[in-house]
Write a structure and sequence with these properties.
45% of the residues lie in helices and 12% in strands. It is of the alpha+beta class and 278 residues long.
Length: 278
């Protein structure tokens, strides 16, 4: 009599898959819990602690895990206050790091503004270096007390008193002032590649005669007198030297006093740095 073949059970799923599915659910819950604790809300956490403190169970068994720097959570609901303080401290620390002072984008400089600031800073630095060189040359030629030097981001300005250069209501350079202009011309030759501008200025005392109808005309004649003399006695390129009459409209002192009017009668020689020369 032939033996009957044992039939294997057909259909159905392997029994281990139920266990595996339970394990996956537990892992999911575990990671959701970790995520929730990492983004804990301080107010909600405090409400949770207060709720637990009113209950009759403890959170951990005796000698449980350490929290913070070596502090132990033992049995008893009273220990939850330490846990609450710990999480408050950590939450506040994280808030201090994350909640830095916000950047005011409206006042934040644009790329163009930053470029302009860098450009001006570079121009000012070059002007200051030029001014140091000019002051040194003025001292070497012993005319430092006859010229005033100041700078900005565009140029170095040499200011000469009008009383040193011209007689009252005149535009011809005085004979005794020619040595001063000669020495200045030699200094200017060191800046042949720079744009040079010569400005004439007057006080506000009205003038009107056959040659100069007003202060604007007088200041222009004085500026051109200095320019033409410098060009005649140097090798400077004429196309890089300009002259202009500014009249009484840019005073540096009070015109109501004799001293102030004397300061306003002046000639300014502006030597532009390489960033502002044409």
């Amino acid at each position: 009599m032939a033996k009957r073949k044992v039939e294997e059970p057909s259909g159905g799923e392997a029994s281990w898959m139920n266990t595996f599915a339970d394990l996956m659910n537990l892992l999911l819950c575990f990671f959701v819990l970790l995520f929730a604790m990492s983004t804990v809300d301080a107010d909600k956490w405090e409400q949770l602690i207060n709720s637990m403190q009113k209950s009759s169970f403890s959170i951990l068994s005796s000698g449980g895990n350490s929290v913070g720097e070596g502090m132990m959570i033992a049995t008893g609901v009273s220990q939850l206050e330490m846990l609450d303080d710990y999480f408050k401290e950590k939450t506040n620390s994280a808030d201090d790091v994350e909640e830095t002072e916000p950047i005011d984008k409206e006042n934040e400089p644009t790329a163009e503004e930053e470029l302009i600031e860098e450009y001006e800073a570079a121009g000012l630095k070059e002007s200051e270096e030029m001014a140091e060189q000019i002051e040194k040359m003025l001292a070497e030629k012993q005319i430092a007390d006859q010229a005033e030097v100041d700078v900005n981001a565009q140029f170095v300005r040499i200011t000469l008193s009008g009383a040193l250069l011209f007689d009252t209501a005149q535009s011809q350079i005085r004979e005794d002032a020619l040595p001063l202009v000669d020495k200045l011309s030699l200094i200017l030759e060191n800046y042949n590649s720079n744009q040079i501008e010569i400005e004439g200025h007057t006080d506000n005392v009205p003038i009107s005669n056959e040659k100069y109808e007003n202060n604007d005309v007088l200041s222009a004649y004085r500026a051109f007198a200095v320019k033409n003399y410098i060009l005649e006695h140097t090798m400077l390129e004429p196309g890089r030297i300009y002259a202009a009459g500014c009249g009484e409209y840019n005073p540096v002192a009070d015109n109501s006093t004799a001293e102030g009017r004397a300061r306003n009668r002046r000639v300014e020689i502006k030597i532009y740095n390489s960033y502002n020369s044409n």
